[in-house]
Design brief:
It is built from 22 helices and 17 strands. It has 613 residues and is an alpha/beta fold. It has a 7-stranded parallel β-sheet with strand order 3-2-1-4-5-6-7, with helices on both faces. Helix 9 crosses helix 14.
C-alpha cells in the first residue's frame, strides 16, 4: 500500500520542527507500507534553503519512506503577503512533484497551510484515490482570532475553502479532541473524524539524564534552567517570557533558555539586550535529534501561547516532549492541554500573558527542586501510557489501511438493495406494531404499576454516520440512588420484571417506532452509548456506515456474551457483506435465539460490560 502525503513543513529528526509525520510514516513503512512525502526545499521554521533540507530527501528512516522536495520560496517570514505567496507557490510546485510520485493508494493532505491540502485533494481526484484530510489547527479561525486575517472578503473565502475541503474529504484526522468536538458542532459527521492526538516517542528521552556536558558548554552548571523550545512568532508570546526574565534578574540561580526561531526572534533578542538580561539565552534553531540532550539539561520546561480563545483547543507538540523527558511543564496555555498536564500531575499552570505569574511559578519550582522532579516523573509515566507514539502509529496505520482498501467504492450495495431493505423495514415494522399493540399496552400498564413513570425509556444514541437520535425502549430499571444522589449500579436497579423483559427482548418493541421513522433498521449494528463515540478506533467507527438495528450479526453470534472486540469485528463484517438475504437470515436466527434466551448478559454483568476504548 502506497500513501502520498503533501506537507510543506515536514521535518525529520535531522531538521528543526515537529516530527509527528516522520514518526508515523516511519512506523507505517516499518510495517511494510510505502510512504512518500512531498515537502518544501525551504525550512518552514527558519525560512532558509539549506543543505539540511537536501539531506532530508536522502531517505532517512525505513526503506519504505521516501521524501521528495518541491521548489519553494524563501520569503515565508518576510510579511503576510509574501507568506501567502510562498504557500501558493508550494501549492503548484508540490502538485507537479506529486503527480510524478508514481501510483498511490491514498492521498493525505494536512492543514495548515490549507493551500497544500487543496493540492492533495486535487491529486486524489486526478488519481481517483481516497483523500485523507488532517486538521492540525483550526484555520482560518486561528488567523482571525489573532487579527492576522481581518478582511471580510478574505475571511469568507477562507471559510469556504475550509468547508470545501472538509466536504470532499473521505475522512478527517485531527490531533486534538477539541477540534473533533468543534467540527461535529459545525455539522461534520462524527464517524468521518478520527482523533490521533499529538504525542511522543518516550524512547527518545532519558529522564535520568542531566545534560551535564551541555550545561557546562553553556555555563549553566549550577543554574536552575527553564527551557522553551519551538517557534517564536506572534502566537508564541515570547515577550511575556522576556518580561518574566526581567522580573527574575535578582535571582542569579535561575536561567531561561529559548530554543527555536521565528518572526519575533530578532525583536525579542533586541529587547533582552536592551534590558541587559544575562539570565536569558537564545540558543537558535536545533534539530529534533538534539532535543533529548537540551531537555536533559533543563530543570523545568515552558509552553506558552498568546491569550487567544482558539489556542485553548490545541495540543502543542512540545508539551509531550517535555513530559517524556521527565521534566515539569510550566504551562501558560489554558484549555485541553491544561487538562492533560493537570491530570498527569506533571506541571503547573499560569495564566497566559502574565509575566508576574510566570516568574512566581519559576521561583516556586526553584525553591523545591524535589517537587519539580516528582512532577517530571509523574509526567513521564502519564505520557508513556496515554500519548505513546507507538500506539498512535498503530492507529494511524490502521486508518490509512482501511481508507486505502475501501476508497470511494466502499459505499455498500446499490440503490436497489437499499430500497429493498427500507421497504422491508417499513412493512415488517408496521406489521409488528399492529400485531404487538395489545401486548405493548399490557406491558405499559404493568410497567407503570411496578416501576412507575415514565413507561418508555428514552436516550440519545448515535445512528447512521454517528448522527444522534432518540431511542425508545420499555423501561426496565428503577431510579434508585445512593445517599449522595448517584444512581445505583445497573445490577441493583434492574428489577425482576426488567430481567424478564430483557430476557424475552420485549423491552425492544418500542424500537419499531425508530424503524418506521427511518432512524434504525430491523437489522444492523446495535446503537451504543454516545459516550463511546470518541473511544472507537477508525476501524471500529465503521460500524456507523449503516443504520443501527434492533438485531444484528453480532446479536445472533453471541450478543452480550461476546467481548467488545469480537462484537465490533462482527459489526464491521456485516457492514462489508450485508445483503437483503443476510438480513432475512439474521431475523430468523434472532427469533430462535430469543426463544432460547441466549447471550442476554455478559458474564458477571447485569447487562454488558462498559466499553473503555
Amino acid at each position: 500500500m502506497h500513501t502520498l502525503l503533501i506537507h510543506q513543513a515536514f521535518a525529520s529528526p535531522d531538521s528543526a520542527g515537529g516530527t509527528r509525520h516522520f514518526e508515523l510514516a516511519s512506523r507505517a513503512a516499518a510495517q511494510g507500507h510505502r510512504f512518500t512525502v512531498v515537502a518544501s526545499d525551504v525550512s518552514y521554521l527558519t525560512g532558509r534553503r539549506s543543505a539540511g533540507r537536501e539531506a532530508t530527501a536522502g531517505g532517512p528512516g525505513p526503506p519504505g519512506l521516501k521524501i521528495l522536495l518541491a521548489p519553494s520560496l524563501d520569503a515565508i517570514h518576510r510579511n503576510f503577503v509574501w507568506r501567502v505567496v510562498s504557500f501558493v507557490y508550494f501549492m503548484f510546485s508540490s502538485l507537479w512533484v506529486a503527480l510524478r510520485a508514481g501510483p498511490v493508494d491514498l492521498v493525505m493532505g494536512t492543514s495548515p497551510p490549507i493551500f497544500q491540502a487543496l493540492t492533495a485533494w486535487l491529486v486524489s481526484r486526478l488519481r481517483r484515490r481516497p483523500f485523507l484530510l488532517e486538521i492540525r489547527d483550526l484555520w482560518p479561525d486561528f488567523a482571525i482570532d489573532m487579527g492576522v486575517l481581518t478582511n471580510p472578503a478574505l475571511i469568507t473565502l477562507s471559510r469556504r475553502l475550509d468547508a470545501f475541503l472538509r466536504a470532499r474529504a473521505d475522512h478527517i484526522l485531527v490531533n486534538s479532541p477539541a477540534y473533533r468536538d468543534i467540527l461535529v458542532a459545525r455539522g461534520q459527521r462524527p464517524d468521518q473524524i478520527s482523533l490521533i492526538p499529538n504525542g511522543v516517542d518516550p524512547a527518545m528521552f532519558d529522564p535520568a539524564a542531566r545534560g551535564e556536558d551541555l550545561r557546562r558548554r553553556l555555563g549553566l552548571s549550577e543554574k536552575f534552567v527553564v527551557t522553551y523550545t519551538g517557534a517564536m512568532g506572534p502566537a508564541n508570546d515570547i515577550g511575556t517570557v522576556v518580561r518574566a526574565a526581567e522580573l527574575l534578574r535578582d535571582d542569579p540561580s535561575i536561567h531561561l533558555l529559548l530554543v527555536g526561531a521565528g518572526k519575533d526572534l530578532a525583536a525579542q533578542r533586541q529587547l533582552a539586550e536592551r534590558l541587559g538580561l544575562d539570565n536569558l539565552s537564545f540558543l537558535g534553531v536545533r534539530p529534533k535529534s538534539e532535543m533529548p540532550g537540551i531537555l536533559a539539561a533543563s530543570d523545568a520546561c515552558l509552553a506558552i501561547l498568546a491569550d487567544i480563545p482558539m489556542f485553548r483547543t490545541t495540543y502543542p507538540n512540545k508539551v509531550f516532549d517535555y513530559m517524556a523527558a521527565g521534566r515539569p511543564t510550566i504551562l501558560a496555555i489554558d484549555g485541553v492541554i491544561r487538562q492533560v498536564v493537570e491530570k498527569s500531575g506533571g506541571g503547573v499552570f499560569v495564566p497566559p500573558g502574565d509575566p508576574q505569574a510566570l516568574a512566581r511559578a519559576i521561583r516556586d519550582l526553584r525553591r523545591d527542586p524535589q517537587a519539580a522532579r516528582r512532577m517530571g516523573q509523574r509526567a513521564r509515566r502519564y505520557v508513556a501510557q496515554h500519548f505513546n507514539r507507538d500506539h498512535q502509529a498503530q492507529e494511524f496505520t490502521e486508518l490509512i489501511t482501511t481508507l486505502a482498501a475501501g476508497g470511494r467504492a466502499r459505499r455498500g450495495p446499490g440503490r436497489g438493495a437499499r430500497l429493498a431493505k427500507r421497504l422491508t423495514d417499513l412493512g415488517l415494522a408496521a406489521l409488528g406494531l399492529v400485531l404487538a399493540a395489545p401486548l405493548m399496552l399490557v406491558l405499559a400498564l404493568v410497567i407503570r404499576w411496578r416501576l412507575g413513570s415514565p413507561v418508555i425509556f428514552k436516550q440519545q444514541r448515535p445512528g447512521l454516520h454517528g448522527r444522534l437520535f432518540t431511542l425508545y425502549k420499555f423501561r426496565t430499571m428503577t431510579d434508585a440512588r445512593d445517599a449522595a444522589g448517584r444512581l445505583l449500579p445497573d445490577r441493583q436497579r434492574l428489577t425482576r420484571l426488567g430481567r424478564l423483559l430483557r430476557a424475552t427482548s420485549l423491552d425492544e418493541l418500542p424500537e419499531l417506532c425508530n424503524v418506521l421513522r427511518g432512524e434504525m433498521s430491523l437489522v444492523g449494528p446495535r446503537p451504543l452509548l454516545v459516550e463511546y463515540l470518541p473511544l472507537y478506533s477508525p476501524r471500529q467507527a465503521r460500524r456507523h456506515q449503516v443504520k443501527p438495528g434492533i438485531t444484528g450479526w453480532a446479536q445472533v453470534n453471541g450478543r452480550n456474551a461476546l467481548s467488545w472486540e469480537d462484537k465490533f469485528e462482527l459489526d464491521i463484517w456485516y457492514v462489508d457483506h450485508w445483503t437483503w438475504w443476510l438480513d432475512m437470515k439474521i431475523l430468523l436466527i434472532t427469533v430462535v435465539q430469543t426463544l432460547r434466551r441466549q447471550g442476554i448478559n455478559q458474564p458477571g454483568q447485569a447487562t454488558a460490560e462498559k466499553f473503555t476504548g
